[in-house]
Amino acid sequence: MTAQSTALRHGATSATARGQVTAQGQVTAQRQVTAQRQGQRRGAAQHACRVLGRLTLLSLLSAVTVLLAACTSGVPGTPGGTGVPTAPTSTEPAPGTPSSSGATGVPSPDPGAQPGEPNTGPGPGMAAGPVEPTGEPVVLASGLEAPWSILRLPGGGTLISERGTARVRELVSGGLRDAGTVPGVVPRGEGGLLGLAYLAGPTAASGTGTGASSSTARETGSGASGSAASVEAGASAGPGGWVYAYFTGAESNQIVRMPLTGTVGSLALGSPEPVLSGIPRAGNHDGGRIRFGPDGMLYATTGDAGDTARAQDLGSLGGKILRMTPTGTVPPDNPFGTLVYSYGHRNPQGIAWDSRGRLWASEFGQSTWDELNLITPGADYGWPEAEGIAHDSRYTDPVVQWRTSEASPSGLAIVGDTLFVAALRGERLWRVDSSTGVATAWFVNTFGRLRDVVAGPDGTLWFVTNNTDGRGTPAPGDDRLYSVRVVQTSPPARGTRVAPGANPPPATAVAR
């Protein structure tokens, strides 16, 4: 036999052996797959049996529950036995009670308003949660002159301040009427009649926010370089409580309060009583938003009035968020023992509280970033050393920042823990999901400059334009008050668009 033939036989033998091994491997693998599939089928069958068993048990329990309810109905001494529905027992917080977890299970009232004021929840029949606008806004009123603040009242009335005329307009069926003119207003640039707030009479008389009253005590106090006016603690509010106003006067920005009289459709303002003066004024950066918080205290935003150093000066009322009693005195738990609650602000113009009692504020930047801040007592928000997200441990960064061309944020409202920010230069309404920090823009370049936004009745959102303030392009009939419905949604919201570059870098623009 030749060497060549021997090699061929060996090769053939090896190939045959490899073929047998391969065939055996394939058989073995097929058996393993078959066994695995049989195991999966047995597992699925066992799982189905367990599920059916649970469903059968649940069905039995439901049937027993129905039978017991039928047996006990009409029996004296048992719930429902009289035929009158009984209130269910619940461990959830009462409506409007701030919760540390934020899960109240019900729409919470706007803590920036007084008890009984309109709810900021999504509306009747809607569960609490993120909301967004739906449909086209409708006009509620027209012919306003540089409106600044929308104030909805517990009894259903609505007042609107006009910056230049110093008038307070009442929304009535078919239009507007004058409820009064605030004396002492000296309009200048961005100054004039600015924010409005409401407080029920008994609380306002106490100066403590607790509802207690005194007919003899007089409260005086000071904070930073301003002074609280001497106010009779037993001063009488009108039957409709008090309307507070922040305005620019001859010497400073100041806060007064006026008794509210009359009924819806014929409301009127009484003579003003001073609450606080000495807030720096200028042709710009006057702040001006005022609201009552869930603690019954009055909060006010102030600008640096063109002097950036004021924002870091704890001895100045400029560039701050202030917190005071209803009569303008210093609450004992303020962080610095003065009216200053937070500092390092340039020109904040919006404040609102969420269902967890957290205070949010919108703020004008200079030329780079506008801000939405979560306010902490005693915190420094960086101006003039920082604008926008600075990643500097000395300062508190904003939760959301926008390019100034897309925002210039003013009024702020919270509905269902969704934040809505009225943008002037950006000519849009910003919607911000407080749980994610995602910001979406609505009605971009549709209605012009937007100054204020508030929760409306019956699941609506109200906002007012500001095209007659000297910086806009007014159309016939401007300025207008609009209403738009809001509906519950799931994050991320379906906005008209997410503004490009609105929140860079994305990782830092999240709600804390």
Automatic annotation (TrEMBL):
Question: Do the record's keywords include 4Fe-4S?
Answer: no
Source taxon at top rank: Bacteria
Q: What are the start and end residues of every segment in region (Disordered)?
A: 1-24, 75-137, 205-232, 489-512
Domain (Glucose/Sorbosone dehydrogenase): give its ranges. Answer: 241-471
Entries under SUPFAM superfamilies matching the protein: Soluble quinoprotein glucose dehydrogenase (SSF50952)
Polar residues biased stretches: 1-17
Protein's name in the database: PQQ-dependent sugar dehydrogenase
| UniProt source species | Cryobacterium breve
